Each structure stands twice: as C-alpha cells, then as structure tokens.
Amino acid sequence: MKEKEISYLNGFVALLFILGFAALGVYLITLNEAVPIAGGVLSCVIALVLLTGLTTVQPNQSAVVTFFGRYLGVIRKNGFYLAIPFSTRKKVSLRVRNFNSAKLKVNDVNGNPIEIATVVVFSVVDSAKALFEVDEYETFVEIQSEAALRHVASKYPYDQLDDVGFSLRANTEEIALELTGELQNRLAIAGVKIIESRLTHLAYSTEIASAMLQRQQAEAIIAAREKIVDGAVTMVQMAIERLQAGQVVELDDERKAAMINNLLVAVVSDRSAQPVINASTLY
C-alpha cells in the first residue's frame, strides 16, 4: 500500500457553508410550518454531516484518511480542510526523530562479549506504509534497529591491531554506513527513512574487560617490538653497506658479527646503551 493524495476542500470555505446550512435550518424551523420544518431539519442534518469532515493538519504532519475501513488517501499540506464526512483521519508525524537503543551485549566475530549501543535518526516518508504495513511502526523501528545492530556487530572484531580489515573501534565511519544501509533495507517496508545511525557506546563486557586490556597491551608491545627489530636490522645493514662502500674499514666476518651484535643491542634495548671502549684488538 502506497501513499496517495486525497481530494479535499478549504476548511474555512466549508465552514461558511456549514454555518449557512445551520442558519437556514434554524430559520425554516422557526416558521412553524410542516414543509419548512422538514427542510430546516434536513438543512441542519447536512450541516452536522459536513461538520464531521473538518480536520486540521499541523506542519510536518500528515492525515491518513479511511472511510469505514477503506483507505482513501493522505492529506500532507498543513492547514484547515474538509475531508469526506464520517471518515477517520489518523495523524502521523513526519518530523525527524531519534531512537537511542539500550546497551546490548553481543559477541563480536572473535566470540568476545562486548557492549554496544547506537542512536538512529529517522523520519516517516510514507504515512500509509507506516500505519498499514506494520503494527506500531515506532516499536518496529526499535526492534529492527537492535536486530540490525546485533547483526553488524557480530560481523567484525572489537579491535584489530594488525590493521587488516575493519574493526568496530577503529572504523566507526564505515560501521555507521553499513548499519545505516542495513536499517534502511529493514525499515523500508514501514515507510521509514534512516537519515543517520551512529554508535554511542562500545566497550568490552565487564567480565572480560580486564583480561582484554592486558591482551591489548601485550599485543601492542609485541607489535612495537617487531617494528623496532625491523628498524634495527635495516640500520645495521645500512651501516655496514656504507662502511664498505666508503672503504672506511675492512670488516671480516668476525668484526661484522661483533658490530651487528653491538648495534642491535644498542637499538633494541629499552635502556640507554653504556659504551665500552676496547683499547686492544678483537684477537
């Protein structure tokens, strides 16, 4: 069921006709004659029937009109109007709204329990779908938002120290875009447009937070050590190549080994190096 515009009349013009019928009816009834009284009653009935069709539509609001269970259309333009008498006008807000999800406990792709929450910014773009395709579209938005958040969170790790692939903590923009796209697919049936969605809370669950912090620290130390070792090896290679290219000194295998050992210790050590002056030869 899609939204369609319904025909309607200006409410102020219709109100003038209603007052005119009512005044005519009262006048005819006061004549106290059979035929005029019948006409006066009919005129008053017409005024009362037209009065049931008056409705007001606020800015950023729509009125969905149904007539004894039949969907007729929607009034989107704000103002005072006359719709079909005896029809039901259900008002739907078209304003932009926020939904803040509760903190959900989810397992990421590595099986680690995490706490996650999101805020969803949405608005209704199809009033007919919002009312007739789902039961209570606001509740539908809440449930589907939490379901989409659980699905997206379970596809990625909380953190990725090796910088390979996406993670929930490091790639918030990409995760937000994917979450918005999935929400739009889920909520299109309800006539809802997702404007934006963002993660508002992300943390390890309390039962593993301490252990995961130690793990992160250990992984960070290992990653830093790997870079230090790679840099140290590169520096040693450059030093030996420059010494040999400049013919500053001739290094045999034993001197090269000693030089490599000294340079690696000086660069890799987490303490400042203490130089030792050798006054004799290596032999």
UniProtKB/TrEMBL annotation:
Keyword list, A-Z: Membrane, Transmembrane, Transmembrane helix
Positions of transmembrane segments: 7-29, 35-54
Species assigned in the record: Paenibacillus mellifer
Superkingdom, natural source: Bacteria
SMART domains, sorted: PHB (SM00244)
Domain Band: residue ranges: 52-216
Name of the protein described by the UniProt record: SPFH domain-containing protein
Alphabetical list of Gene3D superfamilies matching this protein: Band 7 domain (3.30.479.30)
InterPro entries in UniProt: Band_7 (IPR001107), Band_7/SPFH_dom_sf (IPR036013)
